[in-house]
Amino acid sequence: xxxxxxxxxxxxxxxxxxxxxxxxxxxxxxxxxxxxxxxxxxxxxxxxxxxxxxxxxxxxxxxxxxxxxxxxxxxxxxxxxxxxxxxxxxxxxxxxxxxxxxxxxxxxxxxxxxxxxxxxxxxxxxxxxxxxxxxxxxxxxxxxxxxxxxxxxxxxxxxxxxxxxxxxxxxxxxxxxxxxxxxxxxxxxxxxxxxxxxxxxxxxxxxxxxxxxxxxxxxxxxxxxxxxxxxxxxxxxxxxxxxxxxxxxxxxxxxxxxxxxxxxxxxxxxxxxxxxxxxxxxxxxxxxxxxxxxxxxxxxxxxxxxxxxxxxxxxxxxxxxxxxxxxxxxxxxxxxxxxxxxxxxxxxxxxxxxxxxxxxxxxxxxxxxxxxxxxxxxxxxxxxxxxxxxxxxxxxxxxxxxxxxxxxxxxxxxxxxxxxxxxxxxxxxxxxxxxxxxxxxxxxxxxxxxxxxxxxxxxxxxxxxxxxxxxxxxxxxxxxxxxxxx
Amino acid sequence: xxxxxxxxxxxxxxxxxxxxxxxxxxxxxxxxxxxxxxxxxxxxxxxxxxxxxxxxxxxxxxxxxxxxxxxxxxxxxxxxxxxxxxxxxxxxxxxxxxxxxxxxxxxxxxxxxxxxxxxxxxxxxxxxxxxxxxxxxxxxxxxxxxxxxxxxxxxxxxxxxxxxxxxxxxxxxxxxxxxxxxxxxxxxxxxxxxxxxxxxxxxxxxxxxxxxxxxxxxxxxxxxxxxxxxxxxxxxxxxxxxxxxxxxxxxxxxxxxxxxxxxxxxxxxxxxxxxxxxxxxxxxxxxxxxxxxxxxxxxxxxxxxxxxxxxxxxxxxxxxxxxxxxxxxxxxxxxxxxxxxxxxxxxxxxxxxxxxxxxxxxxxxxxxxxxxxxxxxxxxxxxxxxxxxxxxxxxxxxxxxxxxxxxxxxxxxxxxxxxxx
Lengths: 486, 421
Known about the structure:
heterodimer; A: mainly alpha; two-stranded antiparallel sheet; two-stranded antiparallel ribbon; globular; B: alpha/beta; eight-stranded mixed beta sheet; three-stranded antiparallel beta sheet; 13 strands
């Protein structure tokens, strides 16, 4: 079936989702943009039953080694997430989950090194309803609070088991404060470099003394797990003074408190950081690069406006995202195709455009690693570098080679679906240039694609020719520089 | 910080002005640029290396009072003599290979390298060490600027990045450095075989030589694509390299193996980038326990460097080789409550190679926590720099690469005491 383009909806779904399956495009194309934005941000109205389709025909496949165990096996967790990215009807929820995964970047490898692969997978990826100890993995936290309140999210992240291992909060005690989390909550999670001092780092470390982990549950029934505990005896009860206001009245000193009441220090500190204008501006600039464009600096007026919505809504990310997606900057012609696709965005969009029946997402995991992105394992606490750094020559080869792998896998589907468009090579090319949603290409490039179709023999459009040329062309287009933009 | 770096356009990524050339021609060009000339291997130790566990001032009593669990016992260090301040120093006990290279006079240890108001942030710190420009950490990388200054058109293999992503130090204006983690998998796949596959590849090659006008971000991807396709054949020759020694099966070991292969095959690469991570040892640093975190880091470092050193020596290429290490910061002197160390300031750089004047450069810090101790900063908490790290870069640029450090580093950082090469 030929695809009927809808430039606005496609732009919106590339950014607020991971491209558009043909059924998604059809579904949203009948609606006004503002209605679609409303639907995307109000995703709770769509039932969340996508996981129940894993293993069913008509969907992208998964590969099981024994039993499919996405709550305890990290490879299966990665497959489950990729499955959701292809098939979820809540695209913005998944997009924001990825955004938070990058923002609060926590690496599975370190957690697994400390606690073993099985437990680490639970803390990263388990669904609470499916875990014997009720563990909610960090990604599930991000998914639950994808468009939640940012202050509440910060609070949950500060108590998150994987984070307490990743940034060593579990060893933060009054005798020897641990600076790691205190530094990063200011540098990377809220205000950014330039808005805090070294002495703020020391004071922040003392704030979170006693925010540790305790072992709960029983090994006998598999429910044993680590979870957050405030350990009063390990809390530094002295006052902590910062270079910025912590309280609404401008006060910058968290008062001395009894050890029993000391957890309030961290709550005050998180409330204070969430309320700083610099936090709103930091988030706004990051949202600009992620949703609007990374090919120009964030527009100052955009940053001002989004930061204002952030503050006036009391940190409501749903209100913030609605404003982002309806902003003139988002719809500016310079923003369309104004961003590089992340490897996972590239892979999922290509699957949605080319086809998925008969392909296993397991086959995408090694290519994704070669492109520089391993889900659940960002390189460091700052997340992925993104932008230009995705395009080392080796990573570009990995993208081209993934297009080849998928095209080969879909050979017969492609040959069948293009049958009605094979009268001329021009028609054949037009069909695929429309099916694969990509930035405009120059005439000279399209001419080369056309030449390729007849490079090895006269065009006949036969089954045999389509079975070679359809995957070959999908390889060239899917691996083209134009397709790497979004 | 790096968030701003992501807006690379601001930094001015110009449209690629690459012209396609056949690999044969590129090899000639590579030879003209000195394929068997001097090589530089930049080694990044990611996370902030705890230099006080790598090079130990084992007679300093404060070393042990401030590091009751992490201090390397004096009886276990590999003693390498005293520096000009008469501080006795020893290498971490797992660095037996580095001690051998030191004894051969081919390893320089440059103590207390850093800069004024040193950043304790991984990201800002890495940006600063990568750009050699504390005032503008969004600038291009210093190696990238060096590559940009080479005669153009630059060979697409003039640099070789063994990491998966482009590190800031290699970011250049018009020189694209390929990322080749594994030469054996650096290949162009096709869904078809034989004639059809060849047709795809030749179409891809012709398309990649196209330069889209007025679309610099798209042109950048074209440049990467073209660099990838133009280097496939030469990289394939490296995949078949048989080293003279067994390299450890670590990421760093295999990266050094690829570097040696590229050097031996003479494919024209001048600058290599290798990296190993895990140095952010906030907790359970385990300096002294076999298989402990820091002990393993030292094992990884030592075994990879020693294999590379022996291999290139046996290939007759040691005289053409210089390895230069950096890390974003050293670590706090006092250990924390998690048997680890937090982010600190100055650190020790390693330089090794066949023409290196080995030895101890600079002076070790006194670890006395007196706030007035001039070798420390941050109220005696961190090591203060003695050498600006750009002075080390300047020596490498002037004394090894044969370029001029003044324009490349935007200033005169030459220091006659740094005569390591």
